Amino acid sequence: MSILHQIQDSPSNSNALVLAMRYAQKEDCLLLCGNAVNTLLGNKAMLNESKCKVILLEDDIIARGLQDYVGEFELVDYSGFVSLTLSHQKVITW
Predict the structure, then answer these.
(1) Residue 48 neighbours by CB distance under 10 Å
(2) How far from 11 is each of 18, 33, 82, CA to CA, in Å?
(3) pLDDT tens for residues 11-22?
(4) Cα–Cα nearest to 86, from 34, 31, 36, 32
(5) Which of 14, 17, 28, 42 could form a disulfide with 9 if both were Cys (CB 3.0 to 4.6 A apart)?
(6) Do 7 and 17 touch, CB atoms closer than 8 A?
(7) How far apart are CA 35 and CA 47, in angstroms?
(8) How do residues 3-61 score in pLDDT, each as one tens digit?
(9) Strand residue runs (E) in 1-94
């Protein structure tokens, strides 16, 4: 069963990302949105170590001026976000 783990809070304010990464399986996906995209500023190495795919919400990246930090991570718009929720069997919001 594939799970979409939606992370909303920055690692400096919450341990949601750490917990999600602990439970995520290879077929799962991490979607960072809201303040969670700030992970690119100080914890990008943690994202690179993820055993599952990491995707970032494009509007939140743009709103925070983080376009230069995206690197190899995939960006999705809101339509892509909806598609992700439909393509996974379960969605967990952290």
Answers:
(1) 11
(2) 8, 12, 24
(3) 889 999 999 999
(4) 31
(5) 14
(6) yes
(7) 15
(8) 999 999 998 899 999 999 999 999 999 999 999 999 999 888 889 999 999 999 999 99
(9) 3-7, 29-32, 53-57, 74-76, 90-93
Q: Give the per-residue pLDDT at 43.
A: 82
Distance from the first to the final alpha carbon of the chain: 18
DSSP 32: E
Cα separation, 70 vs 58, in Å, equals: 10
Cβ atoms 20, 5 nearer than 8 A: yes
| Cβ atoms of 58 and 75 closer than 8 Å | yes
Query: How far is Cα 2 from Cα 75, in angstroms, rounded to an integer?
Result: 19
> Mapped to the 3 state alphabet, what secondary structure does 47-58 carry?
HHCCCCEEEEEH
For residue 7, give the amino acid letter: I
Here the tokens at position 76 are 């999705």
